[in-house]
Amino acid sequence: MLELDPGVIIWAWITFFVLLILLYKIAWKPILSAIEKREKTIQDALDRSEEAKTEAEAILEKHNQMVRSAEEDAQRLMKENRALAEKSRQDILNQAKQSADKMISKAKVEIEKEKEDAIQALRSEVADLAIAATKKIIGEALDESKQRAIISDFIQKMPRSIQN
After folding, report:
1. DSSP for 2-38, written as a single string
2. CA–CA distances in Å: residue 21 to residues 9, 15, 31, 32
3. What is the C-alpha separation between 108 and 81, in angstroms, rounded?
4. Coil, strand, or helix at residue 1?
5. In the chain, what are the domain boundaries?
6. Of 28, 74, 90, 99, which has the maximum CB count within 10 A?
């Protein structure tokens, strides 16, 4: 078994304290300064990471705000484009209606003119037929200008419903 010798124990304690004093004088300060330096480096890294995290959160918030702003702008532009398209559609419809109204009005004027021309031609034809019929019935020709005046006067005296 192991026996304990008091002299060895005392020398072990003396050696331990001498080594402890030597280590304290020689190695303790460099070890503590290395530990403090390492601790400071770690703390700086933690501080920088916290700053980076804060900065990243600020950038993320700014990015989210820009996305919201872009979405709002897109919605606003879509509304403006819809309104512009509706206005253009209304303008085109109004122009088409005006054009159609002008065409209808022009067609009515042309129809009225053609009607007047047809009535005039019909009056002339009726006058010529009446002159020819009068020649055949009477057997002689009256003064043609006088016959035309009589027939025109007769046509003018006709009721309007017969003329139209």
Report:
1. ----HHHHHHHHHHHHHHHHHIIIIIIHHHHHHHHHH
2. 18, 10, 14, 15
3. 40
4. coil
5. 11-163
6. 28
Q: What is the pLDDT of residue 52?
A: 95
Q: For residues 59 and 48, what is the distance between their CA atoms, to the nearest angstrom?
A: 16
CB-CB contact of 34 with 27 (8 Å): no
> CB under 8 Å to 141, separation ≥6 — which residues?
135
d(CA 141, CA 133): 10
The pLDDT, as a whole number, for residue 27 is 84
Q: What is the pLDDT of residues 5-17, one digit of tens each?
A: 888 889 999 999 9
Q: Scanning the structure block, which residue is given the tokens 């009535």?
A: 119
**How confident is the model over 71-97, as pLDDT tens digits?**
999 999 999 999 999 999 999 999 999
In 41-160 the beta strands, taken as DSSP E runs, fall at none
- For the CA atoms of the chain, what is the radius of gyration? 61
Q: What is the pTM of this model?
A: 0.42
Structure tokens at 61: 């918030």
CA distance 141 to 5: 182
Smallest Cα–Cα separation from 152: which of 128, 132, 116?
Answer: 128
